[in-house]
Every structure is written in structure tokens, then in C-alpha cells.
Amino acid sequence: MKLSTKKMCAALTTAATAGLMTTQALAADLTITLGHVDPAEWQTSKKGAAAKVFKELVEAESGGRIEVNVYPNGQLGGETDLVQSAQDGTLSMAFVSGAFGKVCPEASVLDTPYLFPSAPVAWEVLDGKFGQELSDYCLDKTGLRTLAYGETGFRNFTNSKHPIQEPKDLDGLKIRVMTVPLFVEMVKAMGGQPTPIAWPEVPSALSTGVVDGQENPVSVIASNKFYEIQKYITLDGHVYGTDFFVINDDFYQGLSKTDREIVSRAAKVAGTVGRAIQQLNSAQGLGELAKNGMEITALTSEQQAQFQAAAQPAVIEWLKTQIDPNWIDKALTAVKDASSH
């Protein structure tokens, strides 16, 4: 009898637990879908970390009324697909980087070479008046509301030929760039030979000598073990990569005031966490590159100024043919203000 009673109690406990879980599952009366292309692992993936924090905060603060379903690893397509899905409403939210500039070209002003002298300056600009103005403009143009800005990191040159210490060292080097015109203009202005190649083909292109080098954040260079096929890296930080945490605005406006506040607040925290993970990855990645024999060139302020003088004016002139020049002036002024204190 004693054993039977224990079994009965266990069964009742299991049933009660199952009933509670069912009740909690049924309590969610709203579902948010969020897609990104990075791994789900929050300790090493900036978008993975941001998505996890967003999900946990929204579900907790809503008391389980809102459920967040995250689709990492490009499960719903590449970044261009995610932007399109968010625009047409088949996806509630997306965490994307370069693809956002395809639907709101003005966002490309953030890719101006050597615009941001440091990450903290970039954060102040993006989280301040300029970032809000850009968000509002792109909202009107795309129907996507930028809830927060994340970070993909500063991009740097690597190559297999020789150290790059000044712009003329790029002369004759075939540098793989993204299939983005701004990056073609940038490398061309510094004397290199820009070669647009899709990301999946980059390792092969480097290994076979189709290109001599490429440019990416340290974290990407380390995680893809480019140190096995590239000898030299220059920490010039020519472009600060920005992530955009966007939501379909019709969906957003359909939320209650309380839920809009929950979602907005969680997105801002998520963007900050993503930045922190990216900073950690960059620091650890640099150590990994050194450990695996890459020759690292850290530029002096004078050398950095040479790169900026070679690339920035040329790209700005090109940008003026693509977007309203006022956006360039606003960005430069915002950076100057943020750098002055």
C-alpha cells in the first residue's frame, strides 16, 4: 500500500506538472517570429545572443502571454530573404546587417570608410539623435521599424603577400569584397583590385589564389580559420558593421501599448548584449590569430589618417550619387560631436 501511494502521488505530481505546462503553453496569445542568419549559440554568436536575450525578456515580462519563436542559421533564408519576409509580414522581426541597405540605401552611410574612430563613438551616434532620425526615415521608406542597433564589428584587411602598413601596400593586391558597390569603390580608391565574390566561395578563392586577400571583422577571420591561408592582417577598421533589429511596423502598431513597451525595451537590451558578445569575440579572435602565426599590423594614428584620406573622400563622392548628401553631412557631424567628449 505504501508503494502504491508513492506511485499515485508521483502520478498526480506528473499530471499536475503536465497540466501546468499545458496551461502555460495555452497562455501565450501572441507569437513573434524572429529570423537571423547566425548560429544560435549565444556565447559565441552576436545575433544568437541578442535573439536569446530578446526571447527570454519578452516572454518573462509578458508573463508568458507573448511567445517568441527564433529561427537562426538562415533557416528562413539569407538576409535579403529575411528583410523581404519582414516587409511582407510573413516574419515579425529580423536581425540583419548589410541587406538592410538594399531597401533603405540611406543606411549605407554607416559604411562610410573610417567614419567611426571607435565602437563607443559608434554606439553614441547610433543610440542618439542621428540613429533615431535614420530609423524614422527608413521606417517611412520600408515599413520596417528599427528597434535597436547591434554590431558586426570593424572590418580589417588580410592578405597572403605582405604586410599592409599604408595605402600603397594595397597596390596590385586582389582583395575579395562583398557584392556591394561601396566596398568596390573603397578598395579601388586605396589602390587595390576589388573582386566581388559571394561569401560561400571565399575560402576557395583565397586557397587557390583567385584573390590575394579579403576584409572582415577579426571574429569572422578567426572563426573561419583564415589564418591557415592568410599570413597578414592589418587592424585598420575601415568599416564599422552595423546590425539592424527590425520589426514589421504594422505588426508593431497592432500590439497594445504595454506590449510595444516590452518589445522595444527587450530589443534595446538585446542589441547591447549582441555588441558585448561581438566585442568579446573580437578580443578572443585576435589572440587566436596571433597564436596561429598571423602577422598583425596595428596602425599608428598617422598611418590611420593616410588610409582615411585615401578612401573616405572618394567613397563620399560616390555616395553622393546614391543618396541625399545631407545624410553624409549629418553622419559626419554626429561622429564629430560624439568624439568631442
Automatic annotation (TrEMBL):
CC terms in the record's Gene Ontology section: outer membrane-bounded periplasmic space
Signal peptide per UniProt: 1-27
InterPro entries given in the database record: DctP_fam, TRAP_DctP, TRAP_DctP_sf
UniProt KW Signal keyword: yes
Key word Ribonucleoprotein present: no
Gene3D superfamilies cross-referenced by the UniProt entry: Bacterial extracellular solute-binding protein, family 7
GO biological process, alphabetically ordered: transmembrane transport
UniProt GO MF annotations: carbohydrate binding
Keywords assigned: Signal
Record protein name field: TRAP-type transport system, periplasmic component, predicted N-acetylneuraminate-binding protein
Organism: Marinobacterium lacunae
